[in-house]
Structures are given as C-alpha cells and as structure tokens.
Write a structure and sequence with these properties.
By secondary structure, the protein is mainly alpha-helical. The protein has helices spanning 9-13, 22-25, 36-40, 52-55, 59-74. The chain has a domain at 17-74: Irregular (30s Ribosomal Protein S18).
C-alpha cells in the first residue's frame, strides 16, 4: 500500500499566504498598554507573546506590541502566566 505524503507536488507549487499586519491594516499609529483587548490578540492562551510569524505583524509594530504587553503586565492589567 503506497504511503500518502501530505506534501504532494500540488501543495509545493502554491505560494504561502502572507499575513497582513493588524496594526498597519487598521492604521493604528500608537498602541497603548491600557488597551488590553487589542493586546490580547497578540498573546497565546498561556499568556505568552506570539511571534511575528504567528501574528503577521511588521517588525516596527512587533516591537511596539512587545513593549506595550510588558508594560501592561507590570501594571497588572495582563497576566504574566495563565493559570
């Protein structure tokens, strides 16, 4: 019985889909640490900061996201770890 490999030639011919930066798409210039609803988009269920590969954010906004998340954690608006 032949082994069915999921990576067949059809999948390799298609280009990967480029994710669009959420902050660039919505024209958000500043990200406030008090805006916890927006910041939660960039956290995993275990309260870790998601990478650029997962979120699709650009380098400039990823730095802004990281800084805002760390400030919100320090002010106890967001958890350091999820229980």
């Amino acid at each position: 019985m032949p082994y069915n490999n999921k990576n067949n030639s059809r999948d390799r011919d298609q280009a990967p889909v480029k994710k669009v930066c959420y902050l660039c798409a919505n024209k958000i210039t500043t990200l406030d640490y008090k805006d916890t609803q927006t910041l939660r988009r960039f956290m995993s269920p275990h309260a870790k900061i998601l990478s650029r590969n997962r979120t699709g954010s650009c380098p400039k906004h990823q730095r802004m996201i990281t800084t805002s998340l760390k400030r919100a954690r320090h002010m106890a608006l967001l958890p350091f770890v999820a229980a």
